[in-house]
Amino acid sequence: MNSTDFLTLCKSLFDNSLSLLCSGMVPEHLSRKYQYKLLRAHDPYSIFYIKANPGTYLVAFQSLEMPDCQNVTMLDLNNIQCQNQYNEQRDLHFGYSYRMCFNYSMNLTDELSQNCGARSYEYNQQSGYYFANEDNSMDINFLSNGGVLVGSPALFLYLVVSLLMVLILLWSDLRMQDTWKGLKILHSEIQNTFSAVCSMVSISSAPLLMLHVMYPSRCDIF
Question: What's the CA dihedral at 69, 74, 78, 81 to 10 degrees?
C-alpha cells in the first residue's frame, strides 16, 4: 500500500488522538496462522483506539517505545507523537515504516486484542497496521519497493542475462563430461540459481511467476 492510499483510507487516524488499549507480543500461533512476512512471532505490538470512534484501531508493530505511550497522535506517515503516563510528550520517528489500512473488520485485530488482555472493547470496523521496523529496516524497505523493482523490465533483463551467463559457463565446464550426468548437474545449478534470485525478490511479475511454475520447489511466494 502506498502512502497516499494509507492517508486516504485511514484519514481518521490522523485527525484524532488515540488511546492505548493494550500491548503484548505477537504469539507464535498467530504468526503461523497468517504466514505474513512482517507478522513475526515475539515482536512487540501496541493497540490504540479512538475514543470518539471506538471501532477504529491503530495496531503498531515492532516498536519497543510504543507500549510506553498512553496516547498517540499521528503527525505524518513517519512521525508519531507519544504521551506517556506522566503526560510527558516526545516525537517518535520511524523512517522505514510500512503501513496498511483495512476499512472492514479484521479477525487479526480482535485476536491481538484478546492476546494482550483487552476487555470490553468495541468490535473493529477499521484497522490501521503500522510496522515501525525499528530493528530490520531492509525488510520493510525492500517490501515497500520490491514490487516496483521486480516489475521493471530492466531488472528482469539483467536477471535473465546473468542467468544465461551462468549457464554458458556451466555448459563449457560440463561439455567434456558424460552428457546425461552433465545435464543433471546443469539442471540442479539452474534450480540453485533461481532459488538465489527468489531469496532477493518477491515473485510479483509475470516472467518470474513463469519461472516459479517451472521450478515450484525452489521458491516460495511471500
Answer: -40
State the residue for C-alpha cell 554458458: 168
Output the nine-digit C-alpha cell for 167.
549457464
Residue 45, all three cell numbers: 505490538
* Single-letter code of the amino acid located at 173: D
Nearest to 126, CA basis, from 144, 110, 115 = 110
pTM: 0.62
| DSSP letter (8 states) at residue 114 | H
Please give the Cα distance from 156 to 171 (Å, whole number). 22
Interatomic CA distance for residues 184 and 170, integer angstroms: 12
How is residue 170 written as a grid cell?
A: 556451466
**Eight-class DSSP state of 76:** S
Amino acid in the structure at residue 11: K
Across the 222 residues of the chain, what is the mean pLDDT of every consecutive 10-residue run?
86 97 98 93 97 95 97 97 97 95 96 94 95 64 44 60 74 61 62 56 43 43 34
Reported as type and span, the H/E element at residue 98 is strand 98-102
Distance of CA 54 to the CA centre of its chain: 26
* Residue 91, beta-bridge partner list: 81
